[in-house]
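INTERNAL AUDIT FORM
Audit reference: QA-55
Scope: verify that the stored structure record matches its stored sequence.
Auditor: D.O.
Record contents follow.
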Amino acid sequence: MRVKTFILATSAAGALALSAGTASAEPNGWYGAIDAGYHTISDDLELVSQTNGPVLNFETDDNWAGFARLGYRFTPNWRVELEGGYRAENEFGTVINPSAGLPTGICNISPVAGACENPEGSFKTATALVNVIYDFGNEDWAFRPFVGLGAGVANVTTEFVGTLGGNRTVAVGADDSSTELAAQALAGFAVRMSDRANLDVTYRYLMTDVEFDTFTSAAASDIGNFAGDFDNSHTLTLGLRYAFGADEPAYVPPPAPAPLPPAPQPPRPVTPPPAPVVPADREFVVYFDWDRSDLTAEAQSVVTQAANYAKSGRPTRVLIVGHADTSGSAAYNVGLSNRRARTVGDALVAQGINGGVISLDGKGETALARATADGVREPLNRRATVGINFR
């Protein structure tokens, strides 16, 4: 039932990814998350006695798992997080002793007569790990796959009580825990719920060791201390992640420079000086890659040409209009064209153009340089025009 419920929840997350509209970019900075899901150990655990050599194979049942995470997103693609996890009791199915050739190495505690049945016991696992995660795609995507690696420590608690398979009158059990170094690999995908909330579907593969002491009711039948690899641990979870970082500040042009004090009046010249030559109004076109608002090397060169031309006179207005092709939705393309205009505006201000004369606009796909059908990726339509006016 737990597997069926989780599959239904994961399918719902995929449907949300297909139907979600474009939201604002997720802010960088701190975030928190909680996850819950399903945990299983795929193969039997083979543990070897460190005292007298017997080998026990533990077969376990599946159970739930939960995680809490606190992380920091440095860029739209890289983040680091501290994860605390708890994998609930993986209860024992059978405990086989292959080294002694017994069908069951540890039997039920009571009754001792009759068939050897499963003992009562379980493994419980608590972890503290640091994960480094890479998110594929860019911050405008509503569906983003991710991969990651984690390292830290794991505490495995072993509890069981039963009888020896070869001597049902001898009680045997364990109530011990060990803390070992641990590592995990993880992969999954995130579905954008809003500009701050994401729904994470995550698979984790945990690798660590386990060690525990046993006790018996007869000292002569002591089976000793056991240790081995606690691998093949698989967990699938559904989680909610929420970002606390500050929103990106709105574009505010720098203040205009203070006016210079009036110069002293020179003596009236005999011949008036010629009128200054006013440069002609001119328009530059900056082209962008598909679904991008950052500047390529070629686009940066055009922005530099526009900045140098504006510095050749005293422009009264610099109008930057962003455009997009028809390959996205109309609403998304309006936002994309606005970001393109803003990128060019920031680049001009960085090269010394007075932000007070800059105006920004975004036309989306409504003013195409080359007319196309809907859904066509036309490079000439992915642009921003820079109109420089001196009059």
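Auditor finding: record pair retrieved intact. DSSP finds three helices and 18 strands in the chain.
Action required: none
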